[in-house]
Amino acid sequence: MENPFSYGTVVRGDDFYDRKDETQRLVSTLESGNNVVLYAPRRYGKTSLVFKVMAELEAKNCLCIYFDLLSVYSLESFAKSFLLKIKEKQSKTERFVKTISSYIKSIKPKLTFDENGSPEFGVDFLEDEVSVQTISDLLDLPEKMAENGQKVIVIFDEFQEIAKFGKYGLEGLLRSKIQQQRTAYMFLGSKTHLLTEMFADKKRPFYNSAFIMQIGPLPLADTTEFLQRKFAQFGIDISEECCAYLVQRTSNIPYYIQLLAAEVWQAVIVEKKSVTTQIIDECCIRVINLKRDYYFELFDKHSEGQKNLLVALCKSGRNIFSLDYIKTNRLKAISSVQKSVKTLMNNGVVDNEANLYFISDPFFKLYIEQQL
Ligand SMILES: Nc1ncnc2c1ncn2[C@@H]1O[C@H](COP(=O)(O)OP(=O)(O)OP(=O)(O)O)[C@@H](O)[C@H]1O
Ligand SMILES: [Mg+2]
């Protein structure tokens, strides 16, 4: 029997719930040619949402190119991956090859034929080192590939990673493309503070160039409906209270909701027991135990101030820079809290949503609580 819960991959169809308003807003904004920045803490479902948005846009005949910057590490790997992403959306390989040949001097496309006679696409880079000019030409390519007035939408995931290319000035280059092209761009990312700095700082190239949108957690009522529906498919009961408890244990982070639900499903499926809070607790402990060594090191490697802040964040993450918070949690000065938060956020241990700061991994939070 297959576990009905999935996490760690893009969820689609029946596995994806809610986000209807966000989907519509994104589709209409992009369709009308406007740029969007979408940010949210890690594992809130940005990429899944964007895949849904793309499916809707493609149904309306838009050409959507999705490009993840996380694995890109050089101009050449940028060029290669970007080209392949455009290629994926082309049904006419020969036309694609022709277009590259006529617009991009530094790339030589190759067309070979496999044993079935189907064309296979490859490229040679003619420069010793791929130049910024080549990237510039490539960024113009999607529009050149659009047919019959097709709208073009280019989506950069993990956009904060553009900082890796600081010395090449890709931020400025992209900004000029945004201004020159009809393409609508979407930028996604989880390092909230990096993205907001990029788009809301007057001194940065992207200032004011896109609508900034944020997604929050999934509403409890929808999560409850989702959990009950999935468990019911196997004849298993889960009460509203238990759903709320599961959501609370996972800090209401979509990825961890599905992870814990998958664990609970495992625990009850054989005997078809109803889900109880006790079973949920046992499953949490199992998840923590699997990662205990890792959590030990993760906690241990932080400074005393950072540890104290992590402990404080288990209790509350609101108004963390207030004197009251500092006093109650016996932290030092505001400046040291600010410094600790910054380090913890850069390391991906802490995230924030609006004014709320929280430990990114709810099981790490439960681990810390266990130790107290
Ligand atoms: N709308 C949704 N419905 C159901 N599950 C969801 C939804 N959004 C997210 N999830 C759960 O969260 C997991 C992570 O989703 P996704 O990869 O889209 O998030 P992300 O914000 O892009 O994460 P990351 O920060 O790692 O890039 C999914 O595998 C799924 O388990
Ligand atoms: Mg993602």
User: What's the SSE pattern?
Assistant: HEHEHHEEHEHEHEHHHHHHHHEEH
Q: Runs with pLDDT <50, length 5+?
A: none
Strand proportion: 5-15%
Largest sheet: 5 strands, parallel
- How many DSSP helices? 16
Secondary structure: helix percent: 40-55%
CATH class of the largest domain: Alpha Beta
Bound molecules: adenosine-5'-triphosphate, magnesium ion
Oligomerization status of the protein chains: single chain
Number of domains: 3
| CATH topology (fold) name of the largest domain | Rossmann fold
Query: How far apart lie the N and C ends?
Result: 39 Å
Count every beta strand, where a strand is a DSSP E run of 2 or more residues. 9
Looking at the overall shape, the CATH architecture of the largest domain is 3-Layer(aba) Sandwich
Can you walk me through this structure?
- There is one protein chain.
- The chain is α/β, with parallel strands linked by helices and 372 residues long.
- It contains 16 helices and 9 strands.
- It has helices spanning 20-31, 46-59, 75-88, 93-103, 132-145, 170-180, 192-200, 220-232, 240-249, 254-268, 277-290, 292-300, 304-315, 323-328, 334-346, 362-371, and strands spanning 36-39, 63-68, 107-113, 119-125, 152-157, 184-189, 211-214, 350-353, 356-359.
- The strands form 3 sheets. It has a 5-stranded parallel beta sheet with strand order 2-5-6-1-7, sandwiched between helices.
- Magnesium ion (MG) is lined by residues 46-47, 157.
